[in-house]
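Data availability (excerpt). The following record was deposited with the supplementary files.
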Amino acid sequence: MKILTHFRKIAIIFLSIFIVLFALSGAYNTQNIDRLAYVIALGLDVGENEPLKLSIQLSRPGSTKSSSDQSSDNNIVNSVECSSIESGLNLFDSYISRKINLSHCKVVVISEELASKGVSDYAYTLLNSVEMSPHANVIISKSPSEKFLNSSQPILESLASNYYEIALSSSEYTGLTQNVTLIKFFSDYVDTFRNPVAILGAVNSKDTNSLSNSTTNASTDMASDINKDSSYVAGQTPISSKDNIENMGLAVFNGDKLVGELNGLESIFHLIVSNQLKSCNISIPNPLGDSDSIDVNLSLKSSTKNNVQFVNGSPYITSNIQLNIKILSATEQSSKSDSDYFSDENMKQIEEACNKYLSENITNYLYKTSKEYHSDIDGFGKHAVKYFLTMQEWNDYNWLDNYKNSTFNVTVDSTLKSGYTFL
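Predicted structure:
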């Protein structure tokens, strides 16, 4: 019995040694981290001689420099014309000394020209890849995607991958765009209840506006509005800086094709209606007359309540919105006394002015999505499907095609909270 126990111990020791040696023997295969080139951003353009121009942005290994001059040196962008994404990656594998790996890809940048032709094949390919993260963001660039990648300079970040993550997180407190991932975009594309949107991006340079006129210039719709500063789209903001990327507004799709764009203010309206707004700042008309407008902070007081009914076969859509508002700016006169803005009468006037302004402009936004773009990006279809007994009846009705016949009724109820200045 002792001999048997002794042999068991020896067998366990040899088995342990074998497992360790076997595990270490694969440490230097082709998948070793030192032999991989990690893509942090992928760019898709229309090629001149091939259907696709594929661009990849790589981070230089071991680089942690963060100044503007040094970051441009660390920004490695290579491009190739090819017939498909997979064939392009194979060409890069033959050119670069390391194997291309997509597991750390943060964004997929698609040019406006390519998006207007349709992107479903590329979305299927990327989501079918075992390496590609479904949480990579989708950006539709008004500039060529190759130029977009070359202009991404992480001035305040040591890693370009962190730069993309932080730059896109601004949507949480500005509402001027939306954080759209690859899986979210694809899910909305295959859905029968709604249409997809994507982040609208561009290079902030003097010639950006002349790059594409394929979609409606949303920034001019509210040029005379009090929210002019929020009515730009990417590439048109009056920010003074050297060429760099900016994300503002949303790209609107009907199916897999780009059909239009929303400016920053319209993106806020989209987030409000679709119950996704976290916080944002806008201006509303000042009913007290001591200034043209008041800057306020908006947040949802409760979930937006949307409903769909059918009148003579056409959708009648109601949206009941409840908001909390806080005054951010005030005139010198109002700041001398809390009672100027926060008397019961004046608070009621400000709330009514906010309600009127938002209900009118959100209604205009909804008619723009239905009449101009024929695109239900707010997902009203999920409130309409309850009237259909079977999915076949729902598919026969074709909600996404009938959305253009919708009429809207928007009500806004806002509650004014004390501004920080007057606490």
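Summary of structural features: The chain has two domains: 33-208, 276-423.
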